[in-house]
Amino acid sequence: MSTRVGVVQFPGTNCEQDVAWAVKVLGGESEMLWHGDATVGTADAVVIAGGFAHGDYLRTGAIARFSPVMDAVAEFARAGGPVVGICNGFQVLCEAGLLAGALQKNAGLKFRCETVELRVETTATVLTRTAKTGQILRIPINHFEGNFVCDEATLKGLQENEQIVLRYVDNPNGSLDDIAGICNEGRNVVGLMPHPERASEAILGSDDGAVLLRSLL
Q1: Which of 36, 74, 93, 184 makes an SS bond possible with 189, Cβ 3.0 to 4.6 Å?
Q2: pLDDT in tens, 88-109
Q3: Domain around 103
């Protein structure tokens, strides 16, 4: 039986169909989870897709965190369910307190849309278990607020607990410690700014994102 992935939609989400397609291509099934529903349905895993939830008003993800579905996502995560936030989804997870730190505007105040190289720093997460430590992945980014920040104590904790999942080889946005993705202490919640669903097939220019999505499936 294939893994069923619930893909969360907020008003302004624009990458949900990309995620659903990538899941299908890699052998999984997907179901859309509307932000107003207080359940994750029959999902085995949850992905919060990229976009501009609620237009990114106030702060990115600041309104989305109060959506009923986020209570269900939090409960699912507390029970050990795999949860991945991509780009705007990463921002939502931080706002909801499911991941540490925050995402602010890129250094230089420029929108960045390009393919970057990422280094896998740990394979002990739901998103990297089929990868190799030190493996370099070529995956696109598409964001204006991808600059990860946190206080010194939080950064030290992320480093010591090996919760930094992915780092940029060549930092495109000023992100602290070159962080491209992190996980929670339970290692079942992962947020990343790059879009693995946009690198799930070779025809897209790279299928390196399939390494991460296969890990989730």
Answers
A1: 184
A2: 999 999 999 999 999 999 999 9
A3: 4-216
Phi/psi of residue 216, each to 5°? -65, -45
Q: Is the dihedral of CA 212, 90, 14, 107 positive or negative?
A: negative
Q: Which residue is associated with the tokens 């976009």?
A: 51
Phi (first) and psi of residue 85, to 5 degrees: -110, 125
Tokens in use for 194? 């790059």
pLDDT of residue 120: 98
How many structural domains comprise the chain?
1
Q: What does the pLDDT average to over 129-141? A: 98
Q: Which two tokens stand for residue 77?
A: 């995560």
Residue 133 CB neighbour total at 10 angstroms: 12
Site of tokens 């991941």: 99
CA distance 151 to 10: 29
Residue 74 belongs to domain with CATH number: 3.40.50.880
CA distance 153 to 82: 26
The predicted model gives 112-126 an average pLDDT of: 98
- Which residues have a Cβ under 8 Å from the Cβ of 122 and sit 6 or more positions away? 128, 133, 162, 163, 164, 165, 183
pTM of the model: 0.96
More confident residue, 143 or 53: 143
CB neighbourhood size of 151 (10 A): 11
For the annotated catalytic residues, the residue numbers are 87, 195, 197
